């Protein structure tokens, strides 16, 4: 029987596809560890509440020993009250043919009030992972509306892109996925992201020494990762869900577990000007954690002209998104 005090976790959009793949893993201990009880606060909008009732029945029916409580609500205060981790998943997913920019206006209105509610009601140790797209800028909106929550407590999810890159590189090199390390995904979780093969290691050696097909790295590899979300939407008629939930768990783990020496994980965090990225952007960087929730951007990675240009392009896109949401009055 678990003896630790339960940690409250908020999941928004809990009745959606990602929610369905995520909640059972959280309740079984895969998010915060096998001896850490959790209370789930599940936020939905009214049309999702009926489905959420069913999800809560299923959570009950699993008899998870670590699940100390679960509450479904449409009320922002109830959802975030006393929460230590908020996973902001609920938003309007991209449909076939739509780019993330199209979503800014629709989703921006969701993340401003959620940021305000986190500021007003969450626990003083709150940390937030934004999954709902466009996740970098949704995170920027929520963070900008929560002035009392330190900027380093906000994360947007580029981990799915890292995991995708890891598998594609492993397949090409004919090695197991765990031989591929040090994958930095720079910038936006969008088609401009840059999965940085130039700093990746395979079996401890530069990936570019193991995979000498530079045309593949700069061509098929890059577009496969950049377009993977769209390909999944095309194939499934719905966006990635189980792999996204898996990456959300990995993202939280990469904050509170110690990063293996010499490695790093991809997370979009607030820029303090590292690598010349404009301050304040929620930007995909290589991040290392001390295992106590303190993370830093790993500095000193080198970029050739090709990589530098890719990073410039994704930075431009995020600056454009910031201008758009400023114009909408969603961030100062
Ligand atoms: P979904 O449509 O299945 O579920 C979304 C849920 O959010 C719905 O149940 C809906 O009722 C709810 N919702 C909508 N507005 C809400 C609000 N204001 N408050 C609370 N709940 C609200 O979608 P999904 O497949 O679960 O995807 C969710 C989001 O995650 C989408 O934006 C998708 O594009 C994004 N996503 C991000 C990544 C990533 O790597 N960052 C990967 C996959 C999907
Ligand atoms: C993904 O990467 O699978 C998601 O962000 C969905 C999308 O819109 O690409």
Strand/helix succession:
EHEHEHEHEHEHEEEEEHHHHEEEH
User: What level of helicity do the residues show?
Assistant: 40-55%
How do the strands line up in the largest sheet? Answer: 3-2-1-4-5-6
Total number of distinct structural domains: 2
Distinct compounds present: nicotinamide-adenine-dinucleotide, (2S)-2-hydroxybutanedioic acid
CATH-assigned homologous superfamily of the largest domain: Lactate dehydrogenase/glycoside hydrolase, family 4, C-terminal
Largest sheet: 6 strands, parallel
Mean of the pLDDT scores? Answer: 95
N/C terminus separation:
47 Å
Number of helices: 11
The top-level CATH class of the largest domain is Alpha Beta
CATH-assigned fold name of the largest domain: L-2-Hydroxyisocaproate Dehydrogenase, Chain A, domain 2
- Which stretches are low in confidence, meaning pLDDT under 50 for 5 or more residues running? none
Structural class: alpha/beta
Q: What's the gyration radius in Å?
A: 19 Å
Tell me the β content: 15-25%
């Amino acid at each position: 029987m678990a003896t630790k005090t339960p940690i409250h976790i908020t999941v928004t959009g809990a009745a959606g596809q990602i929610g369905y793949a995520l909640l059972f893993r959280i309740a079984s201990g895969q998010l915060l560890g096998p001896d850490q009880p959790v209370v789930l606060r599940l936020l939905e909008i009214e049309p999702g509440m009926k489905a959420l009732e069913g999800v809560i029945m299923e959570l009950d029916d699993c008899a998870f020993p670590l699940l100390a409580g679960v509450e479904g609500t449409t009320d922002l205060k109830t959802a975030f009250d006393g929460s230590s981790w908020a996973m902001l998943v609920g938003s309007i997913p991209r449909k076939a043919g739509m780019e993330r920019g199209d979503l800014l206006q629709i989703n921006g209105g969701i993340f401003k009030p959620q940021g305000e509610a986190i500021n007003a009601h969450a626990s003083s140790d709150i940390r937030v992972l934004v999954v709902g797209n466009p996740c970098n800028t949704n995170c920027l909106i929520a963070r900008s509306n929560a002035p009392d929550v330190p900027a380093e407590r906000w994360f947007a999810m580029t981990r799915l892109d890292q995991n995708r890159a890891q598998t594609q590189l492993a397949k090409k090199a004919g090695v197991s996925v765990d031989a591929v390390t040090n994958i930095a995904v720079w910038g936006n979780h969008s088609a401009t992201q840059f999965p940085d093969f130039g700093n990746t290691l395979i079996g401890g050696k530069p990936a570019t020494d193991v995979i000498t097909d530079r045309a593949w790295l700069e061509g098929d590899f890059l577009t496969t990762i950049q377009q993977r979300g769209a390909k999944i939407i095309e194939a499934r008629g719905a966006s990635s869900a189980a792999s996204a939930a898996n990456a959300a768990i990995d993202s939280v783990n990469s904050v509170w577990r110690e990063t293996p020496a010499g490695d790093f994980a991809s997370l979009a965090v607030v820029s303090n000007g590292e690598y010349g990225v404009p301050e304040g952007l929620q930007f995909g960087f290589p991040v290392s954690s001390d295992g106590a929730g303190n993370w830093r951007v790993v500095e000193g990675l080198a970029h050739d002209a090709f990589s530098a240009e890719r990073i410039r392009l994704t930075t431009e896109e995020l600056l454009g998104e910031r201008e758009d949401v400023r114009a909408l009055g969603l961030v100062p």
